[in-house]
Known about the structure:
single chain, mainly alpha, AA-Vitamin_Transporters
Amino acid sequence: xxxxxxxxxxxxxxxxxxxxxxxxxxxxxxxxxICTLLLLLPLVMVMRVPWPTSPALWxxxxxxxxxxxGTYLGGVFYGIYLGMPAGxxxxxxxxxxLLTAACAGPLLGETLTKRQWxxxxxxxxxxxxxxxxxxxxxxxxxxxxxxxxxxxxxxALLGISIGTLxxxxxxxxxxxxxxTAIQYMAAALLLGSGALVFETRQVSxxxxxxxxxxxxxxxxSITAILLLxxxxxxxxxxxxxxxxxxxxxxxxxxxxxxxxxxxxxxxxLGMAIAIIGVVLVVKTAQNNAKAS
Length: 292
């Protein structure tokens, strides 16, 4: 399950690269969420999965949706739309495992060992090498975008980090399919409002955009998100968050395959270091769980 999740989740930046030329970010994501709901709601009805009966749980699930889907995806897409390179956006969002691990202790009572902290740091070093090897050393990292793009991606980092912790703390009894549908309703309302206020809502319905939208709806918004919710429900928040360290290296491999982007030896070394870091975090957590 974790391997499949990483492979699917890593296509999100590729989808953004394909789709953003044809629609503004909030409009793009609003359409994506509505299409997802059109598929997800009938599935809930056919499977006859009960909806949450507690209004408080509905509220907690909606907050998680606004954080994990609305703030995270909206921030990343808007940052890229404002000119931030996708690689730099991925690197900044890749700080999530460290932020989540640092907050998991006081908020959720999870304890990280020294080996796990070493693994988290190795992961950060690894993705820095992967993405740093692709940056042009003759240009400033912040050429082509301003503080708005930086603030958007920072909001995305905070959204996915806080959302992961919030889900683990308040939504452990969330029914998977109805809960995910509630999350998308809340995220669609949030980003639809953003599109209404800040964007023209014009879309170029080209074949490329339609195919990209279909992939993001079926593979990312349904399959990958359900895997993420299941992983959060089963595992420690910090251990699940460590999987995101593998997303930038896998995305770099996909970009090399799809767009023939060069992948230097430094990038390959970074991938290896990131994988070692994830293994340290996950294996140590598994060993601790067995020992207890």
